[in-house]
Design goal:
This protein is mostly beta strands. The protein has 11 helices and 38 strands. A hairpin with a 2-residue loop joins strand 20 and strand 21 (about 310-325). The model is unreliable at about 1-25 (pLDDT under 50).
Length: about 650
């Protein structure tokens, strides 16, 4: 390889790639180290209102030479774009008809459609059965929409509409590596009863997309009330599950998407993997073990182990118990694993189809009832967990539960978090978000976006257990952290039974910590509550083995502009790579080391200029201007196109 030509070509950017093609050097570059130049934080209102990157990747090759490639963010499609004759992000019912009204919010207000989602999340770049490239993208929700009554303020429609996933056929320039949208289609979700709030997701080792359904509907609440957002999809308005309407137990699962010829998507819900406020599952290299983040407050960490590699239709689920070692610097613990149960997908689907209810699974009682008559409530245990989405805000309460005889499997797989709490797993985690894997280092990374409430020492309140007791400044911990968990084999569960996996979580400790805004940090980020030069409220994670870098995307109310960061595992360097428009979240973060000769940093921008994100007190003076200046369409895009890479050790020159 002529590394001088490589360096000269790439220092000019991707447009210089023909020189590489002429040299026949499109095979992955052997890199010994990758570093990044920083993107400055916004220093004026124009920068606050747009997304930008001024970073470059500096690749040190195995022979010691360097290659510099600038980041050049590019949009593949925006909300509402017409791609191949189809409008992107359009929310429809099961018959493909655009929805014209939302379900009512808690105040009875109804939004007016048609609805175009700016909620792009989660990307998987897949090869279809026809050999073409396809991008699977979530459309999580529809932020604000006009009130159906003229003259009234916009309505936050979160949880008031069904959601969707989209497949985009891509054309790839063989020279520059750039990606262009050719055709778009919605994933046909009729066979799975529609899609509920798809958040983050991952790509399986066997070339499928593994999506999610976040903030599962609170089945206790919706036992006697209609789940109207999904009734809109199904065409069953006003009906409860018992009356043939949408069933809350049909939502809250991973959804696997495979791509056939012509981009035709097949969707399958994997009910045997448990039901949570599912941020995402990430698969391990054994094609059997997977970990799920459980978003919300007072939630859990879930491990699933499939019976067969590459087949997610049957397996065993476990809940983690945090056995704390230290509460300092974000804390550390050894994870113990509590076996919750084994199931086949068909068994859990049969329970759902039978319309099993929350009250069929549990007997429940209030603390007052238990105190008044303890003998009558023998066997009831206290539980304090996130109950799932409902119009009352899904608030945690102290409840006493007892599983009805013979309903253990139903409890484990339909009410996974509640059952995990009954079985002794930790359910004090707050805002557990993305997961990523370093397969060579056998390390699982987990984003804890906000560390607060039950995770803090002395803040346990009425929670019946206190596993997590983190110490330090609460304002620092409110900025969140990324945890690193070592993975290995030879482990037993809390009951002494061997766990059949070589990828079981052991020691877990904080790796990347946010922190409160320093008083002397005044030249930029004046409205930020967390340090502008540190990660605040990490959400999306993606790991590059070739770059030895953990990429971190923010979903922060403590940074006016959310950033994408690169964290080097080799030297701990933390570098800001991208700044999103005010009110936007960085989502869909996916780093691919080698796709037909190019490496990609994929990234979406979700709900820019969103009312909810700009509604904090510190943003009051700038909110209205930002809402006017920001392009409020969400976007799917590429933050950087780099040469394909593989990890290599530097060459050694003999004396």
């Amino acid at each position: 390889m002529n590394t001088k030509i490589v360096a000269a070509a790439l220092s000019l950017g991707i447009a210089a790639m023909p020189a590489l093609a002429a040299e026949g050097t499109r095979s992955p570059l052997p890199v010994a180290k990758v570093a990044f130049t920083p993107t400055p934080a916004p220093a004026n209102e124009l920068d606050m209102a747009i997304g930008y990157s001024r970073s470059s990747a500096i690749l040190t090759l195995a022979d010691g030479s360097t290659v510099t490639v600038p980041f050049s963010p590019d949009v593949i499609w925006r909300s509402g774009d017409m791609v191949g004759g189809r409008q992107t992000g359009l929310i429809t019912d099961a018959k493909g008809r655009p929805l014209l009204r939302s379900a009512p919010d808690k105040n009875g207000r109804v939004a007016k459609g048609p609805f175009i989602s700016p909620g792009q999340d989660s990307n998987s770049l897949l090869t279809g059965a026809d050999g073409k490239l396809y991008l699977v993208t979530h459309l999580e929700y529809v932020a604000e929409a006009p009130d159906s009554e003229a003259g009234k303020p916009e309505i936050n429609t979160y949880g008031l509409l069904p959601a969707m996933m989209q497949v985009t056929e891509l054309a790839r320039d063989p020279v520059t590596g750039s990606l262009r949208a050719v055709k778009a289609s919605a994933v046909d979700a009729r066979a799975i009863g529609g899609i509920w709030i798809p958040c983050n997701g991952s790509t399986t080792p066997w070339n499928t997309h593994l999506g999610s359904e976040e903030y599962e509907p609170n089945a206790a609440y919706y036992e006697t009330r209609p789940l109207e957002p999904m009734n809109l999809y199904l065409g069953t308005p006003g009906k409860t599950a018992g009356q043939g309407g949408a069933n809350p137990y049909a939502y809250g699962y991973p959804i696997e998407i495979s791509i056939g010829r012509g981009g035709k998507a097949r969707a399958v819900k994997h009910h045997a993997m448990g039901r949570l406020a599912l941020e995402m599952f990430v698969m391990m290299p054994d094609n059997r073990t997977a970990y799920a983040g459980d978003d919300g407050r007072d939630t859990m960490l879930l491990m699933f182990i499939a019976d067969k590699a590459g087949d997610l239709s049957a397996g065993t689920i476990y809940g983690a118990r945090w056995d704390q070692i230290s509460g300092d610097n974000g804390g550390s613990a050894d994870l113990a694993w509590i076996r919750l149960g084994h199931a086949r997908e068909s068994e859990i689907k049969a329970l759902i189809d039978k319309r099993v209810r929350f009250s069929d699974i549990f007997e429940s009682a209030s603390p007052e009832a238990v105190k008044a008559d303890p003998a009558r409530h023998a066997g009831f245990k206290p539980v304090y967990v996130y109950p799932g989405y409902d119009l009352d805000g899904g608030k945690q309460t102290l409840d006493y539960l007892r599983v009805r005889p013979g309903m253990e499997q139903a409890a484990a797989f339909l009410e996974t978090r509640r059952y995990a709490a009954l079985m002794g797993a930790t359910t004090e985690f707050t805002k557990m978000e993305g997961q990523a894997l370093d397969p060579q280092g056998k390390t699982l990374f987990t984003a804890m976006s906000y560390i607060e409430q039950g995770m803090l020492d002395g803040r346990n309140g009425v929670r019946p257990v206190d596993h997590v007791r983190l110490t330090g400044d609460a304002a620092d911990l409110d900025c969140g952290a990324v945890y690193a968990t070592s993975l290995g084999g030879g482990r037993k569960d809390a009951g002494g039974q061997a766990i059949a996996s070589e990828w079981v979580g052991g020691r877990s400790q904080a790796l990347v910590l946010g922190g409160r805004k320093p008083k002397d940090q005044t030249l930029y980020g004046a409205l930020d509550k967390c340090d502008t030069d540190k990660v605040a409220n990490p959400d999306n994670l993606s790991f590059s083995s070739a770059m030895r870098t953990l990429f971190i995307g923010e979903d922060s109310g403590n940074h006016l502009n959310n950033f994408v960061w690169a964290y080097s595992l080799d030297d701990g360097a933390l570098t800001r790579l991208y700044s999103a428009a005010a009110g936007a979240e960085n989502t869909g973060l996916r780093v691919l080391d080698d796709v037909a000769g190019s490496a990609y940093v994929l990234g979406n921008v979700q709900h820019p200029g969103a009312e909810e994100d700009l509604n904090k007190k510190q943003y009051a003076g700038i909110k209205d201007r930002m809402r006017t200046m920001v392009d409020r369409r969400g976007s799917v895009g590429v933050l950087a196109v780099l040469p394909a890479m593989r990890r290599a050790l530097p060459s050694v020159t003999k004396p």
